[in-house]
Design a protein that fits this description.
This protein is α+β, with helices and mostly antiparallel strands. It has helices at residues 6-29, 34-51, 56-72, 87-133, 138-151, 186-195, 236-303, 309-341, 353-363, 387-403, 435-438, 462-472, and strands at residues 155-160, 172-174, 199-200, 212-216, 224-229, 349-352, 371-375, 382-385, 410-418, 421-428, 476-481, 487-496. It has twelve helices and twelve strands. The two termini are 87 Å apart.
């Protein structure tokens, strides 16, 4: 039996009038006047208005309360005849007061219900907004809306906008039950996309469609179209709530799109800054060796015949050293660019660490002012690495140590097994690196401390190349202090097990 059904309303009305009659008899027995009894019936009518759908039940309760008062309390009692000539007027006033009071009570109850429904809708939208704002991507937004559709007992059809914004991808459906299908109404969804407004059921466009389709996102263009299928049978209040929910989903999609555009703009700005740094650094640092090469070559061409052999050898070695430096700089630049862009995939193989280090030390330019040694490990160590890239990284680390330490310093290369990695370390006893600079030394085009000890040129790419090579192999590179002075650069690469013979 429904609480607001006719039978329930009749029982409530009869029960309240019976209670008012019993209360009136008690009041009458206590010697109170008839006006007090009238108030009990008015209260009963108000109770009927609050406990029933109101309307005709207020009228019925008011009429029955007058008849009950006449039958039980107006002389002669237990009769509908009224001897007092003023009683008809009393009955009329009682009827009007009870009816007006019941009507006002019913109206207040309706307003209270509407206010509670509005509060519930607002709270539901606030909760939905919180969930949508926490979505990391558009798929998560669609998933939240699919849950909302399920809460309405309906399915969701999502049509994502294709590049260009004029057509839609095949629908992604979220049926209520696994294995069931959702009706596809692409033409209706396209109409909603083109017109930037709702289409389908409960609208003037394709009103015979099964679902209600709304564009999601702003006007430049919407990110897709969301359909509630089927929309037939959904209460008007729930449809309005769904429209508001789609509006919130659109705001969340716009936020994600704005964040993506902002991140893309930041990436473009970083790329532009990197390009500017590259051009500035390259133009500044390459000018000197190119000028030296050009000048020395001009001297040899113009006066080579009159120069002694020692002078010609000195000029030739200077040209060769500058050319070697330029070649190393270009190789580093190409390597870091290709590795960062994913253009180079390491051709990893099982390599002996001793061979890699010794090969790298043969490529390090000779430096009579520094002592470079290799402390070979007691047992053979194998790494899974690209030999050419690994040699380049070790060369860069040793060259960096030679360039940033004063004459008379020592550079030591060593290797050790650390868990599943092999750590190749290049240590020096130079001035070290300040803690504030340790996290930034691997940035491209950055050199620590300004000018190098002996004025050696540096573009600041060597350590950036080492970091890119380490990452490409799934390894790491770090710098730490060395006791009592100096620093240690540790390149970690995946270890290979030494085969048992």
């Amino acid at each position: 039996m429904r609480r607001d059904g006719p039978l329930a309303s009749l029982l409530v009305t009869a029960g309240l009038l019976a209670a008012a009659t019993a209360a009136g008899m008690l009041l009458r027995a206590a010697g109170l006047q008839e006006a007090t009894v009238v108030v009990t019936y008015v209260l009963a009518v108000i109770g009927v208005a609050l406990a029933t759908p109101g309307g005709p039940w207020c009228l019925i309760a008011a009429a029955l309360s007058v008849l009950s008062f006449n039958f039980f309390f107006a002389a002669p009692t237990l009769s509908l005849n009224a001897l007092d000539p003023a009683m008809p007027g009393t009955f009329a006033v009682m009827f009007v007061v009870a009816l007006v009071a019941g009507h006002l009570a019913a109206r207040l109850r309706l307003q209270a219900r509407e206010a509670e429904a509005a509060r519930a809708r607002t709270q539901a939208l606030l909760d939905l907004s919180g969930r949508l704002q926490g979505c990391p991507d558009l798929d998560a937004v669609v998933g939240v809306m699919a849950a909302e559709a399920t809460g309405l007992g309906r399915s969701l059809a999502w049509y994502a906008t294709l590049p260009g914004g004029a057509s839609l991808a095949p629908p992604r459906t979220y049926p209520l039950s696994p294995g069931t299908s959702v009706v596809e109404e692409r033409a209706v969804a396209v109409r909603a996309l083109v017109n930037r407004t709702a289409a389908g059921a409960a609208t003037s466009s394709f009103s015979s469609a099964s679902g209600l389709y709304l564009p999601i996102g702003g006007d430049e263009p919407p990110v897709g179209v969301m359909g509630l299928v089927p929309a037939e049978g959904v209460a008007d209040d729930d449809l309005e709530l769904w429209r508001s929910a789609c509006g919130l989903a659109g705001l969340a999609a716009d936020r994600l799109r704005a964040l993506a555009e902002r991140e893309e703009a930041a990436v473009r700005a970083r790329n532009e800054q990197t390009r500017a740094d590259l051009l500035r650094s390259i133009s500044h640092d390459l000018r000197t060796p190119l000028t030296s090469i050009s000048g020395n070559a001009d001297v040899l061409l113009a006066a080579g015949d009159v120069l002694d052999s020692e002078r010609r050898s000195t000029l030739t070695r200077a040209i060769r050293d500058d050319a070697i430096w330029l070649r190393g700089t270009v190789e580093n630049l190409l390597t870091v660019t290709r590795l960062e862009d994913g253009g180079v995939t390491p051709q990893a193989d099982c390599e002996l660490v001793d061979d890699l280090v010794e090969e790298a030390l043969r490529h390090v330019p000779a430096d009579a002012d520094h002592e470079v040694r290799f402390d070979a490990p007691a047992e053979p160590l194998l790494v899974h690495a690209d030999p050419s890239l690994t040699v380049q990284a070790i060369v860069n680390l040793v060259a960096n140590a030679l360039a940033h330490t004063p004459a008379g310093s020592h550079v030591c290369v060593s290797a050790a097994r650390v868990a599943q990695m092999v750590e190749i370390c290049v240590a020096d006893d130079g001035p070290g690196i300040p803690d504030a600079e340790k996290d930034r030394v691997f940035e491209a085009f950055r050199t620590t401390g300004g000018a190098l000890p002996d004025g050696t040129r540096s573009v600041g790419l060597g350590l950036a190349v080492c970091r890119a090579i380490a990452r490409a192999h799934g390894g790491t590179i770090a710098v730490r202090d060395r006791a009592p002075r100096g620093c240690v650069f540790a390149l970690s690469l995946p270890a290979e097990e030494v085969p048992r013979v």
